[in-house]
Design goal:
lipopolysaccharide transport protein A fold; 43-stranded antiparallel sheet; 43 strands; rod-shaped
Length: 775
């Protein structure tokens, strides 16, 4: 680059002009020239000359190497010093088309160690055409206190230097140039204003300011080193760090002009910023690389080792940290707008909402993964999408009391953002989520809930950024305290705090379990609705006194229905649609069944059928006599339109036309009230009361008894039937004989021994005994 070769040329000029101009010129004048004898020298001088000119040529090729002019020179007697005044040197390039011009008002050459020193101002102009005018601004340098070592050809000064070149200008303190290594150093206080050459797409590129503790230009490898510290400022962009290396690239334009551009800047322990009114970008890393495009715009920034990026917009602050971070920029608008970020190695992306008037902040999102890719929306202010290419964890940190703390673990995470960096949707695979209760929910003993599934899709409210709904597919599982659930898929309505389970759904806790095609679970209350092939099971209460089921016992209570509704933490249950409930052999069927565990009631409606098995009453204190085995259990079957059972009085009321049957006995009536034996004896029937068009039929092997009336009482232990109201009547039917009929105000019939008591007119009781015919 021509703009940076200025010091190199200055050094060469100083070397050739100082040494060869003074030392060899003096020798040649004394030895070869034969001018008129000069005036006598001063007693203080050994030699002198005026209007002196000397040309240096290559002895092998005859090529002119340099032309040297001096107004005069003088050598002090008994001294190795030669004083030169008004010195002008032209050092020609190899092709002879240009030369470097050096001018100094005064210089001193010391023959003892062959170095040249100019205490005054030295001005150098590089690349002056031999013919015609220069096609661009030539590099010029001004300094003082310059020393040239003829043995090494090195030039050095410790004083201030200024320079002008085609791409700008600069200043510094102290300079050094070594032509053997083509190394140029500015020792301290480096300030360089670089104006990149324009291009057709960017005719007026933004200037670049370089500041550094020191600068070293290595021409052979086209690098500028800024050590131990350097800073580059370009409009609103600032990059600084330690051991900065600026990589240059030379090119030739279509019109033959030589163009030098900065291609990359690298630094250690570096940080930078890009600040505009509505956005700000900050970045840092142990190692940082900044790449520039042809128009001198930043196109890529790469950070490694504790790399960190902070992007601030009007609505949010986004931070990315990782071992390695790459940032790509869109330069189409002649601004470097962040377009893409890739983080690798312990990556963390944090998106935090910023406070704004009239807007409640959403949750802060923290994403962790070994590989994170972030794309920005046009303009570089807001996030468009975030993707992980490795397993990751997404955490939602609440900023309001009503917000939940959530974590999500999965792989292939994809987050889509809307305006103001609010999440619009989220999907992942192999997912595990955990939602912690709020402080208010913890006071109500709400436990954290955990879900797992193969796939997850979440949608968020675009106005608030809060989770609106979530769908999970493939082996969905849910757990909240001792409540658990499974299904092929599930969806969460966050606003209503409801989970809907679909296909092979199941919900259970420590005491009960329900499966169905479809289950809707209210997380706040624990209530749920199950539909389609409902099956439920509940363990018996440890304290049977608290049991509310007609079928209470020591076996699990099972139920089936088309639909089930569980409320009040499974203490109120409703079954409908072909409902059936059973415990062991005992069973209830109806269109609907309702169980209230707090009120300790059971209500069944529509086509009610109950099947209650009871063991015979245990024997008295005398041991049973040897002989036949004890009788088999007794089945009581009841049919009705409606059943209401209350545990408090162990009463089952069948209404709407009831029918109760036992072995050899059938009871009909508009209403039947069945009283079960005391709690702890299962479903054993103690007595039954029937009202309204009562009909009781008892059948034996060879005859049948039919009792009718408006009210009947049946006592199982005594096998006694009492009929009252509507002129009770008993009809005895015997095979092959006409029926016998008995009527009275009250009939008392004992089925176990066929005794019948008939009460007629008051004070005139009648009693009849029925005797069976012997065969």
């Amino acid at each position: 680059m021509r703009g940076t070769r200025w010091l190199l040329l200055v050094v060469i000029a100083a070397i050739l002009s100082g040494v060869w101009l003074t030392y060899r010129a003096q020798k040649k004048v004394l030895r070869d020239q034969a001018p008129p004898k000069p005036a006598a020298l001063s007693t203080e001088l050994s030699s002198s000359a005026e209007h002196w000119h000397y040309r240096i040529t290559d002895l092998k090729t005859g090529r002119v190497l340099a032309d040297i002019d001096a107004g005069d020179f003088r050598q002090v007697k008994d001294s190795s010093r030669v004083d030169l005044n008004n010195v002008t040197m032209k050092i020609y390039s190899k092709d002879g088309a240009s030369y470097d011009l050096v001018h100094s008002a005064a210089a001193q050459f010391f023959t003892s160690d062959q170095h040249l020193y100019s205490d005054g101002q030295v001005e150098m102009t590089l690349g002056v055409p031999v013919e015609g005018q220069a096609r661009r601004t030539l590099v010029s340098i001004k300094s003082s206190g310059v020393t040239f070592d003829s043995a090494t050809n090195r030039v050095e000064t410790d004083r201030a230097a200024s320079f002008v070149f085609d791409n700008g200008e600069g200043t510094g303190t102290g300079a050094f140039y070594d032509p053997a290594t083509h190394e140029l150093r500015i020792k301290s206080d480096v300030k360089l204003d670089w104006k990149p050459a324009g291009t057709p797409s960017a005719p007026n590129p933004k200037p670049l300011k370089i500041e550094a503790t020191s600068l070293a230009y290595h021409e052979a490898i086209s690098e500028i080193w800024l050590k131990p510290w350097g800073r580059l400022t370009r409009e609103n962009t600032v990059v600084e760090g330690e051991h900065v290396v600026v990589h240059l690239q030379d090119s030739v334009t279509s019109d033959g002009q030589r163009r030098t551009a900065i291609r990359q800047v690298e630094a250690s322990k570096a940080h930078g910023s890009d600040t505009y009114p509505n956005r700000k970008l900050e970045y840092s890393a142990g190692e940082l690389w900044v790449d520039f495009d042809d128009d001198s715009e930043v196109r890529k920034i790469t950070g490694q080792t504790n790399a960190r990026l902070v992007a601030v917009s009007e609505a949010s602050e986004t931070t990315v940290s990782a071992y390695h971070v790459e940032m790509d920029f869109d330069t189409g608008s002649r601004q470097s707008l962040l377009s893409h970020v890739a983080a690798a190695g312990d990556g963390v992306l944090t998106s935090k909402p910023l406070p704004a008037p009239g807007r409640q902040p959403g949750e802060t999102h923290v994403l962790r993964s070994n590989q994170i890719e972030m794309k920005m929306r046009p303009g570089g202010r807001e996030i468009d999408t975030v993707v992980t290419h490795a397993p990751g964890k997404l955490e939602f940190l609440p900023n309001l009391p009503a917000q939940h703390h959530r974590t999500l673990d999965g792989k292939d995470l994809f987050i889509a953002y809307g305006p103001q960096n609010r999440i619009e949707s989220f999907r992942a695979a192999g997912v595990r989520t955990q939602t912690d209760p709020t402080a208010e929910e913890r006071r109500r003993n709400r436990a954290p809930f955990v879900t797992t599934s193969r796939d997850l899709l979440a949608r968020f409210d675009p106005q608030t950024g809060r989770l609106a709904s979530m769908e999970q597919r493939g082996d969905f599982a849910y757990e909240e305290g001792d409540r658990k659930a499974r299904a092929a898929q599930a969806s969460l309505d966050e606003g209503q705090d409801v989970i809907v389970l679909e296909t092979s759904a199941r919900v259970w806790d420590a005491t009960s379990s329900t499966s169905a095609d479809h289950i809707r679970l209210d997380q706040r209350t624990g209530d749920f609705t199950a539909e389609g092939n409902v099956n439920s099971s509940r363990l018996p209460d440890k304290d049977q006194k608290k049991s509310s089921e007609l079928l209470s016992g020591d076996q699990p209570l099972q139920a089936q229905a088309r639909k089930m509704v569980s409320a009040n933490r499974n203490r109120a249950i409703h079954y409908e649609g072909g409902a059936a409930m059973w415990q062991g052999a005992n069973r209830i069927q109806a269109d609907t069944i309702d169980v209230d565990r707090e009120k300790r009631t059971l209500v069944a409606g529509g086509n009610v059928v109950t099947n209650l098995w009871e063991e015979p009453k245990p024997p008295g204190p005398q041991p049973p006599a040897p002989g036949p085995q004890p009788p088999a259990p007794v089945l009581t079957v009841a049919h009705a339109a409606r059943l209401v059972y209350t545990e408090q009085d162990r009463l089952a009321v069948y209404t709407g036309g009831a029918l109760l049957t036992r072995p050899g006995l059938q009871v009909k009536g508009r209403e039947i009230r069945a009283f079960l034996a005391e709690s702890g004896t299962g479903s054993r029937l103690q007595k039954a009361l029937a009202d309204g068009a009562v009909e009781i039929v008892q059948a034996t092997k060879d005859r049948a008894y039919t009792l009718t009336g408006e009210h009947a009482e049946y006592y199982t232990d005594e096998q006694k039937v009492i009929l009252r109201g509507g002129r009770p009547k008993l009809v005895e039917s015997v095979k092959g004989a006409p029926p016998n009929t008995t009527e009275g105000e009250e009939l008392i019939y004992y089925a176990n021994d066929d005794r019948l008591t008939v009460n007629g007119v008051p004070k005139q009781p009648a009693e009849s005994r029925i005797v069976r015919k012997k065969k």
